[in-house]
Design a protein that fits this description.
Length: about 120
């Protein structure tokens, strides 16, 4: 069964940190660009950070630059998103996605995880 499974979400205070993980099963991530997308209540899903399949180049939404770091470990078939200095407006469901392409960061993917909820609140 081909799937992506996210983990690492939870409740964190403003200014806190979380590390999200996304592990693939049933296929290898080597040839897939990977991305993390966020959907806040009542809003459309948006790209937060993505990493290419080839050279590992990265993209970050402007508002998270300098605070979030995306990385991938192809040997573990896993992608990570380290999130620091979190803000309340970054609350939402975070989805991992894979697309068989060099690079992408729009919500059109070949595979989606079911999402992990991140709540930033005091």
């Amino acid at each position: 069964q081909l799937q992506l499974v996210e983990s690492g979400g939870g409740l964190v205070q403003p200014g806190g940190s979380l590390r999200l993980s996304c592990t693939a099963s049933g296929f290898t991530l080597d040839y897939y660009a990977m991305g993390w997308f966020r959907q806040a209540p009542g809003k459309e899903r948006e790209g937060v950070s993505c990493i290419s399949s080839g050279d590992g180049s990265t993209y970050y939404k402007d508002s998270v630059k300098g605070r979030f770091t995306i990385s991938r470990d192809n040997a573990k078939n896993t992608v990570y998103l380290q999130m620091n200095s979190l803000k309340p407006e970054e609350t939402g469901v975070y989805y991992c996605a894979a697309r068989r392409a060099f690079r992408f960061c729009v919500p059109r993917a070949d595979y989606w995880g079911k999402g992990t909820l991140v709540t930033v609140s005091s």
